[in-house]
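hey can u check if this looks right to u? its 226 residues, i copy pasted from the old doc so theres a chance i mangled smth
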Amino acid sequence: MIFCVEDDDSIRELMTYTLNASGFKTVGCENAAAFWSALKKEENPQLVLLDIMLPDEDGISILKKLRSYALTADIPVIMATAKGTEYDKVIGLDLGADDYLAKPFGMMEMVSRVKAVLRRTHGNVERKISIGKLEIDEKKHNVTVSGKKVNLTLKEYELLRLLMKNPGRVFTRDELLLSVWESDYSGETRTVDVHVGTLRAKLGKEGSRIETVRGVGYRMSDAVKV
C-alpha cells in the first residue's frame, strides 16, 4: 500500500490513478490531518509520497515525526515539492527521505522512482523477527509461538513488534503510548498495562519475556521466567 499526500486534487487523483494502474493499492490524502488519520486506520504503508507544501502541516514536519516514531521510522518516503531550491531537497534527505521528486514530474518517472525505492528498501528480505520461540512475520502480519499462530489485536501486535525490535531497551509507558497509540494523552498509561497483561496471557510462557521495569515501563528480555 502507498500513501499519496498531495493537496492538489487533480494531481493527487492522477498520482493515485497511475499507481493503482501500476498494481499498487493507493490511499490519497489531501492534507496532513487526512494522512495521520489514514495511518491510524490502515496498516503501515510500503511507501509514502509526501508533498512538502501542505495547507496544515508541512511535509518536513510530517517526515520528522515519522522518523521519530519507532513503528514508522522505517517507512520509505519520497518527498515532492514545487520549489526549485536545493534547500528543501537537502533538508528532506538529511532528515531521512529516501528520494526526491521535483514538480512538475511525469507519472512514469514517479512510478519508476517508487519501484526503485521499494527494491532498495524492501528487496527480498523475509522481514521476520524472532526471540526464543516467539516469531513475527511482518509480511503476513502473523505472530507464532513454537510455530503455532497466536491471534492478537492490532495494538497487541504493534506493541509486541516494537518490543521485539528493540530487545533489552526499556520503554516508558508514555513512549509506548506515543509509538503504538500515537498519543501522548496523560492519565491513560493504564491502557498500556492492560494490553501488556493480555499480551502476556496470549503468549503463554513466552509472555514472561515482557518484563516490568518497576517505576519505568517495560522491556523485551532474552530470558523466559520460570
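Helices lie at 9-21, 32-41, 59-68, 86-94, 107-121, 154-165, 173-180, 190-203.
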